[in-house]
Amino acid sequence: MDRDLLRQSVSYHGHTLFSLLKCEQQENPDFQCIAGDLSRTVQYRKERRVENVAVQQFIARKADLLFSPSWQSSTPSVKEETEDMYAVMPPLEQFMEVPGSDRRNLFFRDIERGDVVIGRINSLREFGFFVTLICLSGGLGRDIEDLEITALCPLRDVPTHGNHDDPLSYYQNGDLIQAGVKDVDRYHEKLTVSLQPSSLPSSLSHLKLGVIGVDDMPAHYSRSVAVASSTTETYEKVLKRTLGFANPSTVEFLLGKLGISETDPASLMRGLQTKNFLKEDYATSIRKKQSASWALKCVKIGVDHFKSGRHVEAMNEYNKGLEIDTNNVEALVARGALYATKGSLNKAIDDFELALESCPTHRNARKYLCQTLVERGGQVEEEEKLATAEGLYRKALALDETFEEAEEALQKLQKHIQVRQCKNIITCLRLQGLVCFTYW
Fold first, then answer.
1. From CA 191, how far away is CA 151, in angstroms rounded?
2. Are 248 and 255 a contacting pair, CB within 8 Å?
3. How many C-beta atoms surround the C-beta of residue 144 within 10 A?
4. Residue 349 half-sphere exposure, CB side, CA atoms within 13 Å?
5. Phi, psi (rounded to 5 degrees) for 65
6. Alpha-helical regions (H) of 271-344
7. pLDDT by residue (tens digit) across 42-70?
């Protein structure tokens, strides 16, 4: 079971959830391993009235599934903290009136080995140096700058730089330091940190340890400084102003960052945990089928309106069906037929072509498209746009080689073009005086 997530849940819900977990998960060896840690977690929490018993019962019954590592995929998590991808916010407690003692207790409750902290050197000694912590980096966010929490970085945890005999000669008071947490003494509230890369877990190995600049401070700290200098900022205002909040791909990005798969496992129902599902069984495919069914109902209503001569109502129903299912073939064919009836032949052709793209074997779409192409060809032929008309007739024949109307129209047009070409030739010859007369 994921220790951190389970601890966060117990910390929020308190003793009631912890008691339910002990009843429901008492035979779960994973829960037994972390039960002691969870009991210490609820000690720091003030009890409040329980208003979500059903939620807590669900969590307790499904804890082995909800907090199972199997929810995490093998895909590596996203390492770079990109502000544009999601809303990086200041610590939540900064917007609340949380006493310093409570924030200090929460910090020492949650800090773990391998976490990354940022602080400023306040004292250099022969055995190492002391750092006053400013914020956390690379994961957990806490408002701690005013708590005066000090950590020790022993000399053995300071890497050598260049040819310096004394590793500490590279540092001076006031330097900003990023370090990994090496040891936590929760009872005495003492921290030991390290600048050695080995102090970091693999998920945070990309972070630079040692001296950093102001520009290297994490985004959540930079925003917390801006919030601290204002008396009118609220969490909602800061959230909506953040560029990443408007990113439509936020959910997908955060799932990738956490290494969580949306489909494996597909359900929290125990009976469905071990089954492999077809693509058609997932919500996206089912929703598509539902949309197609609803769109067909609109088409049916529209056809009834059309038969009764209520063309406006029919068009509204067809448009409604296409709003529900954009590529619904029946709706496209029906709307195309209505366009053709009203003389909007180009719009009709567009709808019939879209319908054929979605379903190349649809007989009515092919039939109506051929008819409309021939009819449109006749219109442009009357406008003396003979090349365009020929292209429309040929397009109809390409769709259906046996379509007699298109064949007849094309032959008639070709004869007309030949006659015109002959007339043009004779006219030119007459102008040049080469032909005196002709029988026509």
1. 5
2. no
3. 23
4. 16
5. -90, -45
6. 283-307, 311-324, 329-341
7. 665 555 666 678 888 898 888 888 887 76
Distance of CA 260 to the CA centre of its chain: 13
- The bridge status of strand 176-185 relative to strand 210-211 is antiparallel
Note the pLDDT tens digit of each residue in 98-117.
888 988 988 888 888 888 99
**pLDDT-based confidence at 440, cuts 50/70/90?**
very low
438: phi then psi, degrees, rounded to nearest 5 = -155, 150
State percent of the chain over pLDDT 70.
Answer: 87
Query: Distance between CA atoms of 414 and 37, rounded to whole angstroms?
Result: 90
Report how far apart the first and last C-alpha atoms of the chain are (Å, whole number). 97
Structure-token match 């005196």, residue found: 436
DSSP label at residue 44: T
Distance of CA 43 to CAs 37, 38, 57, 63, 104, Å? Answer: 10, 9, 21, 21, 15
Helices vs strands, H then E, count in the chain: 15, 6
- Angle in degrees, 0-180, between the axes of helices 386-399 and 404-431, rounded to the nearest 10: 150
Place of tokens 């307790």: 60
